[in-house]
Amino acid sequence: MESHTPSHDDISKWKGIDIIYFQEDLRKKAKGNISEKSFYTYFKSSPMSRLPRIDILNLLSVYAGYSSWYDFKKKKPLHKNIIQPEETTLEPEKSYPENAYTEEKSPAIPPHYNPNEDTFSEFVLPKTTHKPIINESFIFKLKKYLWIGVSTILAIFLAILYFADSFFYRTYTFKFIDADRSQPVQNEVEVKVLKESESPLTYKVKPNEPFVYSTKDKTLKMVISSVFYRPLSLTRNLENASKTEIIELKPNEYNMMLYSYSRSKDFKNRRAQLENLISDNAVIYQVFDNQYFNVETMSKQRYIAFLSLPTTSLENLDVIESKISNGKIVLIKFRIRNNEKNP
User: Where would you find the membrane-spanning parts of this chain (predicted)?
Assistant: First the structure.
């Protein structure tokens, strides 16, 4: 890459920021893109068990100066020992003759010998007599009606339990507005409902929409957060509470400034503003949208250099969290959304 020196010569050991620079360089030279998922699948795995898809091979061949993958193979023949995908074959089912199984015949009843006449006669089983079952139809009907009666009583009991429990539930509506502008919050709001001896329940509220919650508890504890607003812990006594409440969220000016700087076209002024805004000892985390890396740290200067780079990746930058101490940002947590549809 001409505009960036990778952190390691081995491509399998590249970090997240190296991949972003490589994607940007690939867009400029080959007019295409390889997603993070494909990069980790084909370049971060060792040893390589199979070649990438033909569209990815064509894209990389153009990036390397060839017209296509076919042109690359023609000028740079592949080694014969490259592993190819294994083919699997199914074992044919065994066939059996039609007469492989025969029914076992029951032994015939031998003829009966009569010693007086010295003759054989057909053996006849003795007849048995059964006493008739008294009132069999009555017992059957009785069981049928008992089953219907028990089922009906059980259904009524369950219905009473359901409606009796729902009778004690009440529904509350919370609307979120910007404390400075008195306008509805334009970003997604996260609401965590805290309950004793239970894990928090997390709800995502879409922009301009209220949070509707039904409960039979007498107290409601919530933690409300949004990307451009300060977290708010809230406790409400629901015994005499209104069914609709408006909650004001205070803006997080530092998150707004970081977001604004990442989209500014004045790169020289942007660097100066970030130098003044971020502490020299700030801890900066990049959170990844993939299954290979979760979090990666970077220095202040590397973060400022990344925000000063004219790359389309900054359009997908989200500031997840920031902390302030003595007027300086001491913690930044951000991510690059993986919204690309290319391979």
Answer: 145-164
Residue finishing a domain among 38, 58, 75: 75
Q: Which tokens go with 64?
A: 């390397």
Closest Cα to residue 319, out of 289, 287, 282, 280? 287
Output the six-digit token pair for 50. 């199979």
For tokens 């504890």, the residue is 221
Average pLDDT over residues 251-277: 78
Picking from 270, 342, 331, the residue whose alpha carbon sits closest to that of residue 306 is: 270
Q: Please check whether residue 28 lies inside any domain of the structure.
A: yes
Give Cβ neighbours of residue 334 (< 8 Å, ≥ 6 apart). 258, 284, 285, 286, 287, 317, 318, 319, 320
Is 228 within 8 Å of 214 (Cβ atoms)?
no
Structural domain tally of the chain?
A: 3
Number of other CB atoms surrounding residue 299 within 10 Å? 12
**Res 88: pLDDT:** 36
Residue 127 falls inside a structural domain: no
192: domain range?
Answer: 170-249
Out of 32, 57, 75, pick the residue that ends a domain.
75
Burial 167-202 (b: 16+ CB within 10 A, else e): eeeeebebbbebeeeeeebeeebebbbbeeeeeeee
CA-wise closest residue to 305 among 282, 275, 276: 275
Q: Are residues 236 and 259 in the same domain?
A: no
Residue 174 falls inside a structural domain: yes
Q: How far apart are CA 312 and CA 262, in angstroms?
A: 11
Confidence (pLDDT) at 105 = 47
pLDDT value, residue 165 = 59
Give yes or no: residues 195 and 262 share one domain.
no
pLDDT digits (tens, 9 = 90+) for 89-105: 334 434 444 444 444 44
Say if residue 185 is in the same domain as residue 259: no
CATH number at residue 264: 3.10.450
Give pairs for 74-82: CB < 8 Å, separation 24+.
Answer: 82/51
